Amino acid sequence: MLPELLQGIDAAGFLIIQDSASYSGRHLLKSFINAALSREESVHVLGFEVSEEELRDGLKGSPTQRFHFHNAFTDPLGWTDHPAFTVSGFNLEELTHLVKQPSHPKPATLVIDSLSWILRHVSPSAVCKTLQQLKKGGAVRAIIGLLHADMHQRGTVGSVCHMATSVITVAPGLKGDEAVAKITKRSKSGKVMQDEEVFSIKEDLTVIVQSKASNVGSKQPDPEEQETDPTANLTFNLRLSDTEREAKEKLALPFVFSKEKKTALLHSGPGSGRILYEPDANDDYDQEDPDDDLDV
Questions:
Q1: What's the pTM?
Q2: Quick one: which of 5, 13, 14, 22 has its CA closest to 179?
């Protein structure tokens, strides 16, 4: 699934690369930037956490004239007189004006490095509102954001990820150059697909999928971890022998209709349904007044 996402994100798509302190997702972010540039797409990067030189490293073989870096790294809060881009500019109007280029009329891909920096200074509700407006407004073709999950509360991460059409959660693999990607993708019909893949990133930012994560690191369970038999050490036996099991299966339960009972009920013989009564010697029965015993 990871190579499919690298080949192109659906229009109005929103991809989140979710990482943590144990493994950085920025190299995978740069792989998506490189893949978009190779498809001759215009890419606009809101750079808060690293400089333009650091982010461009590895993109030299790509047509970087379509790469636009909006510098929010040197002055993200606008403390100088002429900041290039600040966190206060994260709204629909300014971003739409920022990404529209007369030389490239097609909608661009917006890359946010990172959403965590914005969430530290803008309320999650305002960030989600802007992202939703960008998805529906048509100003950008797709949005790719890097999110450091261990920097925020679980509710904040869940709110932002709920808006995404695809979420890639990266973690370190068993080898030094490998990582594990847990991918969740939502289709337009609402179907949710999940997968886990082991991947590595080459120096030219090419992503190589090694195998499925379920096949890596699998081991046989230890004897102590195997399920124990709860009836092993009892003083009485809860298990049935073959003879006892056969006798149990042949036993006719009183509330179950056997074949003979069904035949007797469906094919009643003569005289069935009659009520037979034998008078008792102490019965006070008057032939002239049969209902005398009902008088009060």
A1: 0.69
A2: 22
